[in-house]
Design a protein that fits this description.
- The chain is of the alpha+beta class.
- 25% of the residues lie in helices and 38% in strands.
- It has four helices and 23 strands.
- It is rod-shaped, with a radius of gyration of 40 Å.
């Protein structure tokens, strides 16, 4: 009995030891024979273009004119509504003519009296009945009366607001019967003579990177699928005293049908100005990102032996569908751009390069999760 108790455990241990290599071999064989997942890969390339500037933009017409009466008075008629298109010379608003008409008649009668006074003084001067000084006073009186009449006629002409060109009524700030002082805007009018612009505010470091003529692309929140191209037209030489930002305008193409006031995002591409390789940054297709939160993201890098390794990266702006990567990747590495959703860290893959050529560089939209680099 004693011998049997000692021999039985030894046999069990020996049996387990013999079986262990077989189990390990089967596990290894299972891992080795697990099929590799087919994925599409792209090579990390170096982007030497300067990073774009991303700023908020507001759409406006280059020529938006606040129209007002030259003199004060009571509004007799508002002839247009906001959003109405008008022709050049069309009456938009008028003041009551009672007081203005009386001033014109008074000036006209004053001029007629001055003409009679001068004619009488001239005749009397010929008979030596008046002095040269009296004749000169009558002459001056007529000139003054004529100037008063011209001023009254001018005021009467500007007692009506007319459209300076074909355009659109943006806002109106008056109603019939309302008393308005001189110079107070009554109608805000937009013309298409000088096109549409996007107004942006630049921080000082953004101002130093841009110049007139740099290409831009604008997308507005009300029409996110519509990309409007343009160029920097004006950049302020000094910051605004209220905001501290440099105000700039982007001249836009193909935005004449949009209403003023739309808010969106402008992506401005600074032209290379001798910076060369100093702006070199690794870039990958946006499809390579498997998750992103702000400037943090992750990708799968295909390493030696075609093994996919998950790697955290820091991303910046998106230009032409390629994300600039400021940290985590180097040029020449391969990243998964299709099939990454089914991968686990360390999985074996069967990589296939992206077919076709890369598109020509152009400014494109910036992802909401990306940040400026």
């Amino acid at each position: 009995m004693m011998i049997r108790r000692l021999v039985l455990p030894v046999l069990l241990v020996a049996t387990a030891a013999c079986r262990a290599p077989d189990a390990a071999a089967r596990t290894t064989d299972d891992a080795d024979t697990r099929p590799a997942l087919a994925v599409t890969v792209a090579t990390v390339e170096t982007d030497v273009r300067p990073a774009p500037v991303l700023v908020a933009a507001t759409l406006a017409a280059k020529e938006e004119i606040p129209l007002a009466f030259k003199i004060g008075g009571v509004i007799a008629r508002m002839a247009v509504e906001p959003g109405e298109r008008v022709r050049a010379g069309q009456v938009l608003a008028e003041l009551a003519d009672d007081e203005i008409g009386a001033a014109v008649r008074k000036a006209r009668e004053g001029r007629e009296k001055a003409e009679r006074d001068l004619a009488r003084a001239t005749a009397l001067f010929a008979d030596s009945a008046v002095t040269r000084a009296q004749l000169d006073d009558a002459t001056t009186g007529l000139e003054v009366a004529r100037a008063d009449e011209r001023a009254a006629q001018f005021n009467r002409r500007f007692a009506a607001i007319v459209a300076p060109a074909e355009g659109l009524v943006l806002r109106r700030h008056g109603e019939a019967g309302e008393q308005v002082p001189p110079g107070q805007p009554v109608v805000v009018f937009r013309t298409a003579r000088r096109g549409m612009v996007a107004r942006v505010a630049l921080a000082d470091h953004e101002r130093m990177r841009l110049a007139v003529g740099d290409a831009a692309e604008v997308r507005f929140g009300a029409a996110p699928a519509r990309a409007i191209t343009g160029r920097v037209r004006v950049i302020g030489a000094a910051p605004s005293p209220t905001t501290g930002a440099f105000e700039a305008e982007l001249a836009l193409s193909g935005a004449d049908d949009l209403p003023s006031g739309l808010v969106g995002t402008a992506v401005i591409a600074p032209a290379p100005r001798g910076r060369g390789r100093a702006d070199a940054t690794p870039a990958v297709p946006v499809e390579a990102l498997i998750e992103a939160d702000g400037d943090s993201a992750a990708v799968f890098v295909v390493t030696t032996g075609d093994v996919a390794r998950r790697r955290a990266v820091r991303v910046g702006s998106l230009v032409d569908g390629r994300v600039r990567v400021s940290q985590g990747l180097t040029a020449g590495e391969r990243v998964v751009v299709a099939g990454g959703a089914y991968l686990a860290d360390g999985a074996r893959v069967r990589p296939t390069p992206i077919p076709g050529a890369e598109p020509a560089p152009r400014v494109s939209r910036v992802l909401p999760s990306s940040v400026r680099s």
